[in-house]
Structures are given as structure tokens and as C-alpha cells.
Amino acid sequence: MDSTSQKPKVSTGRKIYRIAIVFTLIYCSVGIALYHLQEKLLFHPKPLPQDFQFRFDIPFKEVNIPMTETENLNLIQFFPHDSTAKGVVIYFHGNSDNVTRYAKHANNFTEHGYEVWMPDYPGYGKTTGKLTEENFYNQAKEVYKLAHSKFSADSIIVYGKSLGSGVASYIAANFECKRLILETPFYNIPNLYIHYAPIYPVKRMSHFQFPVGENLKEVKCPVTIFHGTDDAVIPYSNALKLRKDLKPGDEFITIEGGAHNNLVTFPLFQSKLDSLLK
Asked: Rounded to whole angstroms, how far apart are CA atoms 90 and 78?
């Protein structure tokens, strides 16, 4: 073969340099996407038109609380069938859809004589406003204030599921209540991001904190946490970090084999929840 037809050899150093350039471009591109798209990764709201008619199998009332001239908080209040309410459960739901997805859980509390108040977050359902952590807290405070105008603090249970654990723990840390119950909580958002993107400086990148662990240090009422060992959304190991922030007498209940959205099907979860509400 004629030497003039041979391709020039690429040195090992040049190959490594090219690979490094490609890796750097990919790393930076993914990092930029994570930074700018984190709201879409974290929140999955399903807005509803303002004239949407809710339909549920248990008695309920729709309440709208004006937050500003342009922002509205939509709240669904569920009521026990046959008894005067002995208290209220303020239920802060997860990050998907809106209150229609979580309404089926209201029976777990109304059957024990509690009202259940489920607010939607900004951009979820009929609630309007910007998706900021401050707005989450401000709207949650209005729900608590309304509940406290009807019930004494020792009749208010604050419940947080998944994303809602960040809001529920904030309310319990700043206002008096009977009990805080958290289902599939996380330690905080940056710590959760580390699980999914360990090679990025997510603590500096995160727009949201929702510091459940730090909030628990300020919670005076009893705390009960439920988490499953097979949770593929919020790892069990992440929730376990909350143990160090619990007080004597607080509970961390492990549901063996429990996933993110099926804890209610486990007898241990149901029996323990029933005992807390009796």
C-alpha cells in the first residue's frame, strides 16, 4: 500500500483531549438544563379552569381565598358524614396534578370524625400564583389561620405527603398544632437532587429548599413519619436522615416493601394511622 494513502495517526493525548472536550460539553449542557428546568422536574401541576365543577363521594365545600388582586388560593374542605368534626387535618399533597388526585385519601380521616382541608399549590388546580417557595408558605399560612379560626390548635393535625412534607413541616414548625404526620418525606430538596445528580453542585443550583429536617428541629408537637423501603421517587435512605432531627417520643415507621404511592395499602400504615386519629 502506498504510504501516501495512509491516514495520519491521532496521538493518544489528542484522543484524550477530544474525549475531555465532549464530556465537558455534555456535563455543562446537562447542568444548564438541570438549573433552568428544575421547576418542570420538581412540579407537575394540572391546572383547572375556574368554572370547573368538583365532584367527590363525600360532603365537601370549595373555598377561594384571595391572596392578592390577581392570585387566588383554592381549598377543598371535606366533612365527616354523620358527626360533628372533632378536629381538622390540613393535608398538603404531593407534586402531581391537583387535589382531585388526592381526594380519595380524605376518607382515612373523615371516618374518624375529622374534617380534611386540601389546598392546591400555586399553578395547581384552580389556585393561581407563581411557583415560588415563599408562595407555598404564604398560602399554607392562610389555610392554617382559617383552620385556627374554627378549631383550637390542639384539634389541628398537619399532614404532608411527599412534596407536601416540606410545606407541612414548615407550618408545624411555626404554628401550634396537635400532631405532624409526614408520608414519604425527603430531608430537603438539594439533598434529594444529590441522589439523582451526584456529580453536580446541586446545593448551589437549587432554587428550592423545603428543609424538612431543619423544620423538624423547631416542631414542638408529636411527629410521625411513614416511609417505604422500596420508594423509587424519594429513597428510603434520604428519609432516614430525618431521624436525627426527631424528638424523644416522635416516630419513624418503616413500611417494608412500601413504594411511594401505595403505603395506604399496607396494614401497618393503616392501623397506625387509625390509632393516631382515634
From this structure: 10
Is 156 within 8 Å of 86 (Cβ atoms)?
no
Cell (9 digits) for 59 = 360532603
CATH classification (class only), 56-277 = alpha beta
Q: Is the pLDDT of residue 26 over 70?
A: no
What is the C-alpha to C-alpha distance for residues 148 and 145, in angstroms, rounded to an integer?
5
Residues whose CB falls within 8 Å of the CB of residue 85, separated by 6 or more in sequence, listed in order: 79, 113, 114, 115, 151
Long-range contacts of 151-155 (CB under 8 A, 24+ apart): 151/85, 151/87, 151/88, 153/177, 153/178, 154/178, 155/86, 155/87, 155/88
Which residue(s) pair with 87 in the sheet?
114
Confidence (pLDDT) at 202: 60
Residue 22 and residue 73 in contact, taking contact as beta carbons nearer than 8 Å: no
Phi, psi of 91 (to 5 degrees): -105, 110
Q: Where are the domains of the chain?
A: 56-277
Residue 112 sits at φ, ψ, to 5 deg, of -100, 10
